[in-house]
């Protein structure tokens, strides 16, 4: 299996420059003194999440005739918005399949970029997307199972290594695995002394179980949908799992209470809005003794339902 390389990620960075925000590393003086803390706020991207990086890289890599056929995607939310946004910038059509349980704020945002949105039952999105591709002739841009998507997400790690060369720990959420695969690949190449630590909810911990077993395991969609972290309900593909086996030093699972507390801490201490999925890195930092040294948390997204955020922040 061909894995993404640092050269692929560097090329992606050149390709998407001008389309995405080069998010800063924000120092967090309220972190632990022995583990100085920085946040990588991908919630500041135009679509509120890191997914825009992979979407732009994948679409930009298409030849002009292929791109003109339009694109198709399936997503629980952030990838949907990213593909819709990127497609609009390229002036092409986008058809997006989203599960019915997707937060309304993510559905509305996807439609706001001009995409056609089709809602489907849980576990049906890939099948429906394949039908849309067959019907429209559009090009499928998967949320994580594609080297161009992984390379685009890896630019997060490239920027971390450039901005904090002595980074000791990078904590990154894991779901389908595209972000952690790309970030881990970049960090291992550019800051090889750093630990790459994945994090996922206890209620969607299929990757933790799979890494311990040495092979992918399957959790039902009903089980994975229990977590409040709606952006972390996917399972890795063969491609991303192979990356995760190579680049993750460890994987931490966090409770729902840990996730809620992290959303609140980011809001009150960093003055940033994080969705539950994006706050899991802080939940891992708080719930476990990660190694000492400069630590970067990837705040992967900030697209949270206002009512849920109000509930979490309520005294």
Characterization of this structure:
This protein is α/β, with parallel strands linked by helices and 315 residues long. It has 2 domains: 6-49 and 146-313, Rossmann fold, CATH 3.40.50; 52-140, Rossmann fold, CATH 3.40.50. 46% of the residues lie in helices and 15% in strands. The protein has 14 helices and 10 strands. The strands form 2 sheets. A 6-stranded mixed β-sheet has the order 1-2-10-7-8-9. The protein has a 4-stranded parallel β-sheet with strand order 5-4-3-6, with helices on both faces. Helix 7 packs across helix 8. The termini are far apart. Its EC number is 4.3.1.19. Keywords: Lyase, Pyridoxal phosphate. GO terms for molecular function: L-serine ammonia-lyase activity; threonine deaminase activity. Residues 20-301 form the Tryptophan synthase beta chain-like PALP domain. Belongs to the serine/threonine dehydratase family.
Domain count: the total is 2
Give me the number of helical elements.
Answer: 14
In N-to-C order, the SSE pattern is HEEHHEHEHEHEHEHEHHHEHHEH
Radius of gyration: 18 Å
Q: Specify the helix fraction band.
A: 40-55%
Q: Uncertain spans, ≥5 residues at pLDDT below 50?
A: none
CATH first level of the largest domain: Alpha Beta
The number of distinct β-strands equals: 10
Largest sheet, in brief, is: 6 strands, mixed
GO molecular function: L-serine ammonia-lyase activity; threonine deaminase activity
EC number: 4.3.1.19
Protein name: threonine ammonia-lyase
Organism: Mycolicibacterium hodleri
């Amino acid at each position: 299996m061909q894995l993404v390389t640092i050269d692929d990620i560097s090329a992606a960075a050149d390709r998407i420059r001008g389309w995405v925000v080069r998010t800063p590393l924000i120092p967090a003086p309220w972190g632990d003194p022995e583990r100085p803390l920085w946040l990588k706020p991908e919630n500041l991207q135009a679509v509120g999440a890191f997914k825009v990086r992979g979407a732009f890289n994948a679409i930009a890599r298409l030849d002009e005739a292929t791109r003109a056929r339009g694109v198709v995607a399936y997503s629980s939310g952030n990838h949907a918005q990213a593909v819709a946004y990127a497609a609009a910038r390229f002036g092409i059509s986008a058809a997006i399949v989203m599960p019915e349980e997707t937060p309304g704020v993510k559905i509305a945002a996807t439609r706001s970029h001009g995409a056609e949105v089709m809602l489907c039952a849980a576990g049906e999105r890939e099948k429906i997307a394949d039908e849309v591709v067959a019907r429209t002739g559009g090009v499928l841009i998967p949320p994580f199972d594609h080297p161009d998507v992984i390379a685009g997400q890896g630019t997060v790690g490239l920027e971390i290594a450039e901005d904090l060369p002595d980074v000791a720990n990078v904590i990154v959420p894991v779901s389908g695995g595209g972000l952690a695969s790309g970030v881990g690949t970049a960090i291992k190449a550019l800051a090889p002394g750093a630990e790459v630590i994945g994090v996922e909810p206890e209620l969607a911990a299929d990757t933790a179980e799979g890494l311990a077993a040495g092979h992918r395991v399957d959790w039902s969609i009903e089980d994975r949908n229990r977590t409040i972290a709606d952006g972390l309900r996917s399972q890795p593909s063969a491609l991303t799992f192979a990356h995760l086996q190579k680049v993750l030093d460890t994987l931490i699972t966090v409770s729902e209470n840990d996730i809620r507390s992290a959303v609140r801490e980011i809001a009150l201490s960093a003055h940033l809005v994080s969705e539950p999925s994006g706050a899991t890195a802080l939940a891992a930092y708080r719930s476990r003794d990660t190694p000492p040294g400069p630590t970067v948390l990837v705040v992967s997204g900030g697209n949270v339902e206002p009512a849920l955020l109000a509930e979490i922040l309520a005294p």
